[in-house]
Amino acid sequence: MRIVLVGPPGAGKGTQAAYLAKNLNIPHISTGDLFRANISQGTDLGLRAKAFMDAGDLVPDEITIGMAKDRMEQPDAVNGFLLDGFPRNVSQAEALDAMLESGSMELDAVLDLEVEEDEVVKRIAGRRVCRKDSAHVFHVTYAAPKTEGVCDTCGGELYQRDDDSEATVRNRLEVYHTQTEPIIDYYKAQGLLVTIPALGEVADVTKRAMDALQK
Questions:
Q1: What's the start-to-end Cα distance of the chain, in Å?
Q2: Which of 4, 15, 83, 160 has its CA 20 to 30 A from that of 150?
Q3: Which residues contact residue 112 at a Cβ distance below 8 angstroms, ignoring those fewer than 6 apart?
C-alpha cells in the first residue's frame, strides 16, 4: 500500500506511522528522517538543505521533493510506503502525484488523524523533559512523575522545552492550518481521504486506521 499520513502537530503521527508501517510491512518514510539521513551522509540535497537550515530559512519544496523521490525509489519501497510529514503543502502533493504517475503508481489512501486543537495544546504543552537525560519524558496529565518536577528514573529536574510552550504550539498549529491543512481538501476531492479520530489509546487508534484501510 502507498499511504500518506496527515494531522496536526501532537496528533501522534510518528507513533501511528511506526505501528502502521510495521503492520503493513512497508517502510515508514518521515521528513525528519530524510533530512537527517541526507545531511549526515553529505548528499548534494543534504548539503543544500543544511545551508538553508543553518541560515534559519525554510528548505525549498524542490529539495524536500528530491529527497522524498530518492527514498521512494529505494528497493524496500517498491511495494509500498507510508509517508509521514510529506507532502506538507499542495505543491508537494501535486509533485507526489506527478512522481507516482510517472511510475504508473497511485496512492491507496490518505489517513487524516483528527484531534481537536485544545487537545493538541494539552498534549504538547503538558510535556516535561528531564535535564539529565532527554529520553526521560513525562506529562503533567497523562504520565505524571511521582514527585512534581522530578524525574522518576534519575532524579533530574523536569522542565518544559521552549518548543512545547502553549504560545509556540498555537503558532505551529497556525502554520499547519495555513500550509498543510489545504492538502486535506486536495485529497478529499480525489476520494482518498480517510479521517481517523486520534483520541484514546495508541492501540485503539491503530486499530481504527487498520480497519479503515481494510475497507
A1: 13
A2: 15
A3: 6, 7, 184, 193, 194, 195, 196
13 in catalytic set: yes
Q: Residue 126 in contact with residue 139, Cβ under 8 Å?
A: yes
6 to 1, 145, 150, 183, 196: CA distances (angstroms): 16, 31, 34, 9, 10
pTM: 0.86
**Contact, 140 vs 128, CB < 8 A?**
yes
172 is catalytic: yes
71 is catalytic: no
For residue range 97-107, list pLDDT tens digits in order: 999 999 888 99
Q: Which of 50, 69, 88, 170 is catalytic?
A: 88
36 catalytically annotated: no
C-alpha span between 155 and 201 (Å, rounded): 28
